[in-house]
Amino acid sequence: MSAPPVTRRVGVVGHSDYALLKETLARLADFAGREGVSLFYEPPLREHVGDGQELTVDACHRLDLLLTLGGDGTLLRGARMVAREGVPVLGVNLGHLGFLTSAPRDEMEAGLSRWLAGEFSIDERLVLLVHTETAEGERGRDHLALNDAVLHKGGAARVIRLSMTATRDVVGSYSADGIILATPTGSTAYSLSAGGPIVSPTVDCIIATPICPHTLGVRPLILPADETVTVEVLSPTQELLLTIDGQESETLVPGQRVVVRRAPQPVRLVRFPGQTFFSTLRRKLKWGDLAERE
Known about the structure:
By secondary structure, the protein is of the alpha+beta class. The protein has 2 domains: 8-125 and 266-293, Rossmann fold (3-Layer(aba) Sandwich); 128-262, Probable inorganic polyphosphate/atp-NAD kinase, domain 2 (Tumour Suppressor Smad4, Sandwich), CATH 2.60.200.30. Helix content is 21%, strand content 35%. The protein has 8 helices and 20 strands.
């Protein structure tokens, strides 16, 4: 007697602002019914589907895949939800850029079929573990950042003085609007806009990109991934924010510092044959010579 088929458990997160989300969820439910896939929806999505199992913290531990429906922001949010469990993430792009996603909306079923058939690879991406700390060493809550952790002003347009150390070595101090501590994945996001380098995701490192530094001598740094990077604010300002992946934020008070190190677990992104970092860079960000783009 043959063994019964294994039911695959897929978590679903999505951005409710996309006009095509409800239609995409209906197609997903039809596909899951045909293929014997069990779907777990985050609470906001259950309003669109009417039923279905809820994607709880406990359910995240038992998933075989997390499907994100939206753009890069939705993928970043979903990836942080399951990073500690090592659940692979498949992003379906409902927006415009979708640099991190693996399938456009009209290829969602084809992508899921390839995943079910094992026709995919896993792209492991470095994640940052971020927390704040008082001068007395009192530690704040942990954050996971797949793109970046940004220390920046929240009020008046004034430069702030920062001091940065890497493990126990003093890197230096400087005046700027803030600093971006990015992963290679985040090198094509805010860090790139601030003048940082594009770094291949196969390179394990932490990128420190100052935001509008006051002197020309301050430039972005690429640090080994095993460093512990600490940024302390020297200015007596009351208007500082720590922002994670452009989504989570925490207010800092004078005397606090931000501590960043490599997280133990990487984020695991599903990739299909022919999808590479550089092909995506050329296609999505129009990187390369004009003749090549044409």
